[in-house]
Design a protein that fits this description.
The relative contact order is 0.15. This protein has one domain. With 181 residues, it is mostly helical. The radius of gyration is 17 Å and the shape is elongated. The N and C termini lie far apart (44 Å). It is built from 9 helices and no strands.
Length: 181
């Protein structure tokens, strides 16, 4: 498998490694820095929200930032940060990973999993990608699903992902603004 999908394997390994590093560390200094940066810190939290290994940290930071900032303005700014992170990943998936993703889609197991959805494959991919991207789940999976659609232009991708991320971030900020945590 490592010979067939070296980039995907490396990506998976790096996500696991980063997750382990995030779980094992105390990020109080990062929180202090982001708070002192104001809305620039919110943009950075949005950027962190776009990656699975920092999404939990970003969600926690957004919950806390919601107490100090205008929720609408913070949501839009964090959404812009998230879209920048996703755009970089989208370009990487379209360029560097596209051959491996196409090859992976031809594997028997993947083909069997997709068989029930064959008639509505495009709609199922879009719906699943939307759910994943708008939540703090691993966004990279949603981006990979969207980047596999040939009709997904960069402009359309940016619009869809901005709306999805911003919606998810607004929900987090609204929860944080209620001072439940």
């Amino acid at each position: 498998m490592s010979e067939k999908y070296p980039k995907l394997l490396l990506l998976g390994f790096s996500l696991i490694l980063a997750f382990v590093l995030v779980v094992e560390r105390d990020f109080a200094p990062l929180q202090t820095i982001l708070f002192s940066l104001g809305y620039v810190g919110t943009f950075i939290a949005g950027l962190l929200y776009a990656y699975s290994f920092t999404a939990i940290l970003a969600t926690a930071l957004l919950l806390l930032l919601a107490r100090e900032q205008n929720v609408i303005f913070a949501g839009l700014i964090a959404g812009m940060g998230a879209i920048l992170g996703d755009f970089l990943f989208f370009k990487l998936m379209r360029g560097s990973f596209s051959q491996e993703l196409h090859q992976l889609s031809k594997e028997k197991v993947i083909a069997r999993l997709g068989k029930p959805f064959h008639r509505h494959k495009r709609h199922a991919l879009i719906a699943l990608a939307g759910i994943i991207i708008s939540s703090p789940l691993p966004t990279e999976v949603g981006i990979a699903l969207l980047s596999s659609l040939k009709e997904m232009t960069t402009k359309r991708f940016l619009a869809v992902v901005f709306l999805l991320h911003t919606f998810g971030i607004f929900v987090i900020l609204l929860i944080g603004a209620q001072k439940i945590f």
